[in-house]
Amino acid sequence: MAKPIDPFVAHACELLSGVGPCVAKPMFGGWGISVDGMNIAIIAWETLFLKTNAQTQPRWLAAGAEPFVYEAKGRRMQLHYHTPPAEALESPALMLPWARLALEAAVAARKPARPARKKLRAGSTRNG
User: Fold this and answer.
1) What is the DSSP string of 65-114?
2) CA atoms within 13 A on the CB side of 120
3) Cα separation of 109 and 114, whole Å?
4) pLDDT beyond 80 at 111
5) How much is the pTM?
6) What would be the CATH architecture of the domain defined by 7-109?
7) Residue 50 half-sphere exposure, CB side, CA atoms within 13 Å?
8) In whole angstroms, what is the distance from residue 95 CA to residue 12 CA?
9) In the chain, how many H helices and how many E strands?
10) Quick one: which H or E segment has residue 51?
11) pLDDT tens for residues 25-69?
12) Residue 118, beta-bridge partner list
C-alpha cells in the first residue's frame, strides 16, 4: 500500500509547481520530489531541502540556507541540498526563483547520454 501523502509534502509540491508537475515519493524515511524525472527536492525531518550544486550554492548561502547534513557511520555527510529562505515557504510565487535554481542544478547533474558506438562489420577496419 502506498504511503499516504503528508500535508507538508503536498504543500511543498504546490510551492514547487512553478517549474512543472511534481511527483513525491517516499524515500529513506522522508520524501523525494521530482519534476520530469529529476530530483529537485527532498523532505527530511519535516524540512524542505532543494537541490543545489557548486555553481548555485553561493546564492543559497547568501540567503541564509542550511545544508542537508546527516550522520552515517559516525561521520557527518552533506548532500547538495539546502533549505530555501523561510519566506519562500509562503507561496509558489516566492518559491519560484528557488525552484528554478533547484531545477537548474538537477538538469546540470544529469549524466549526458553515452554516444552510440558504431559496430564494425566483419572485414572492415576503423581507418578503412
Assistant:
1) PPEEEEEETTEEEEEEEEPPPGGGGG-HHHHHHHHHHHHHHHHHHSPPPP
2) 7
3) 15
4) no
5) 0.81
6) 2-Layer Sandwich (3.30)
7) 30
8) 10
9) 3, 6
10) strand 47-51
11) 998 889 999 999 999 999 999 999 999 999 999 999 999 999 999
12) none
Cell numbers found for residue 30: 522522508
b/e map of 40-55 (b: 16 or more CB within 10 Å)? bbbbbeeebbbbbbee
CA quadruple 115, 121, 126, 128: dihedral positive or negative? negative
**Type of residue at 83:** T
Q: What is the pLDDT of residue 1?
A: 45
Summarize pLDDT for 112-121 with one digit per residue, the tens.
656 656 555 5
53: its cell numbers: 550544486
Phi, psi of 97, deg, nearest 5: -60, -35
The arithmetic mean of pLDDT across residues 78-89, rounded, is 95
Strand ordering across the sheet containing 75-82: 22-27, 30-35, 38-44, 47-51, 75-82, 67-72
Whole-angstrom CA distances from 62 to 56, 65, 66, 108 are: 10, 7, 10, 21
